[in-house]
Write a structure and sequence with these properties.
alpha+beta, 8 helices, 7 strands
Length: 206
């Protein structure tokens, strides 16, 4: 039997690569900086046959900083206004970014409206109760009528960035209804362009 150092080095190198990749996947999928997010269902409000609302309240949670592709991207993020406001004294390095605003992050509402009427209202928590409960009685009150419509009107939701931070959280709560109402139309805000990546994500969602 001959001793072949080059072959041994190759085998050792492959094993090290497998270990490194496995460890990174483990960190990404299983290593959490906090206990799993707890979701508490507050109420299911059914005022009548034409309106129903499901409300949830999340516990405050943290999200790790991203794995930056290079130092330039990292420096850009660390110098951004967002980082300076939310990560004072570099607190996000160890603990991640804290999300604890009740209106913006923690309160979740899903409303079901029969004959609902949408009139370019604000999205998210700015979408007031009056707007949510608005209905139409005559066809001439609107320019388009859909049998089923799911609204994701997030500013610049056609771009990859705001699809992730705006539409993404809404999808995480409403996805079961996309699967349930497969014939429903999706409403998003039209913009200067429609990013290919966003089109592909919607396509994968069916």
């Amino acid at each position: 039997m001959y001793f072949r150092p080059l072959r041994l080095l190759k085998v050792v190198g492959i094993i090290l690569c497998i270990i490194i990749v496995t460890y990174q996947i483990y960190r990404l999928l299983f290593k959490s900086i906090k206990k799993p997010i707890q979701i508490k269902i507050i109420k299911s409000l059914k005022l009548n046959e034409d309106f129903e609302e499901i409300s949830e309240k999340l516990q405050p949670f943290r999200v790790r900083l991203p794995n930056f592709s290079d130092e330039e991207a990292k420096n850009w993020f660390y110098n951004s206004t967002y980082y300076k406001i939310n990560c004072k004294n570099n607190s996000c390095e160890e603990n991640g970014v804290l999300f604890n605003d009740e209106k913006e992050h923690l309160n979740v509402k899903i409303s079901f409206v029969k004959n609902g009427l949408y009139l370019n209202d604000d999205c998210g928590y700015n979408y007031g109760d009056i707007s949510v409960r608005r209905t139409f009685t005559k066809e001439n009150q609107t320019t388009k009528i859909y049998d089923k419509l799911i609204i994701y009107t997030v500013p610049d939701g056609w771009s990859f960035q705001h699809f992730l931070d705006g539409i993404g959280p809404k999808l995480s709560h409403s996805r079961p209804y996309l699967d349930k109402y497969t014939d429903a139309k999706i409403l998003i805000i039209r913009g200067a362009r429609f990013d290919r990546s966003v089109k592909e994500i919607w396509s994968m969602l069916g």
